[in-house]
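Retro notes - structure team

What went well: the batch runner handled both jobs without manual restarts.
What didn't: labels got mixed up in the shared folder, which is why I'm recording both outputs here explicitly, each with its sequence directly above its tokens.

Job 1
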Amino acid sequence: MHSSELISEGINLMLFGMGFVFVFLTLLVFVTGLMSSTVNKLVKPAPEVTNKPAPVSASAAGNQDELIAVMTAAVHKYRSGR
């Protein structure tokens, strides 16, 4: 084989490979879009829950302060243990 024939075969192989990848990726995009639309049609959207948070009472605020103190102590102990 001459070098011109080798280059020609290389270019043909390159174009065939790039074309195959392009067709595969295009098909993948369309199939993924089809699957997405199918799932959206089959699955009902979850109802939106509009629960208002309960007001924080004085005892719950005390629990928050205690939680902050415990977390601060844990972080301090972790950092000093190294």
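Job 2
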Amino acid sequence: MEAPLEEDVATAGASAGTEEQDLKASEEAIAFMSSIVFSLPSELQKCLFADSLVTVSEGGRDLGKFSVRVEFGRRVQQLCLLLHAQSHGAIDDSPCGTTVTAYLTPDLEVLEEDFHEYVKLDGHSLDKRCHMVQRDGQMVIDKITTMGEEVTKESVSYPMSALRGLVTEGSNLLLMRLMALKKKVPEHMTFVSLDQRLRLIHTTFSELGLKQLEVGGEILEVFGVERIVNSEEDSPTSWHCYFLDDGHLASRVQVGSPVIMRLLELPSKTEKAFEKIPLAWEEDMQMRSEFLDRKDELKAGHASYLRQHPEIRALVSDFLQFLLLRKPDDVHQFAREYFLPFASRPPPEADPKAE
């Protein structure tokens, strides 16, 4: 039964792309994205850092954490921006989380993006995976939704000409970071996005202005950006994000949700905890000789593996930052609870598109 389902969805997606040609980003939004490339390297260089926030309930109970890192990377020999964002935790003792890895051009055009969301409930689970990649002038999008034992596959494509001003789950995080650094959101910032059914919709950004927020025991002035995601079937969804002067995310909340993501400690204090500590080598000539013989081989192998899996550095860095923020007495128990949601995730399937 899966083949007809995939065929129907793919056909629907193709026709939807034709019907939605009139749904476009505003000229102001397209101009803003185009202007970013001319800011290199000053503006984008300021965006290359990591954020780490904790997720808490209205009552102050810890529910998990959220992190996002931006760095320069390469994709098929093309210099680009690599963004990795991750949130995980538990709501009502049910593990849940989201991971986004995006490769973006300097003007925030999506070259490739992976999105994964999961919720593990008693007796069944929900798992959503979406992959989009530019190929032959098209944005090809594949989505797999697993609910218990039921698997639904969708595949659509849009011509890149129809996706001018596209903002995704990954690129919107960097876009807001840039707006926060400028401390200004121009008017008429209307972009296009994709909804849960992979249809084109509008998403808008507007300025919330300045307000006072407590971070790490200090009262600071933060700059707010609102993102509104429209829907053909449901009410619009709004996100309010507030940023420090240097672009670091201070708080993030979905309007109407009892859950808030907030910064516990100023980034400057957190970053000091990661100063390099020199290692004292034991003077063992035989071990040193063996190490030097294999040094280049090991470095090349490790570097190759890390390039293929950029999520490794992000995952380890996120854990260390959260560990140092919380400073638990029982590190082993803390590590167990931190990585427990990952144990509930099914093993990744082999990617037929991987080379």
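One thing worth noting from job 2: The two ends are 29 Å apart (CA to CA).
We'll revisit the folder naming next retro.
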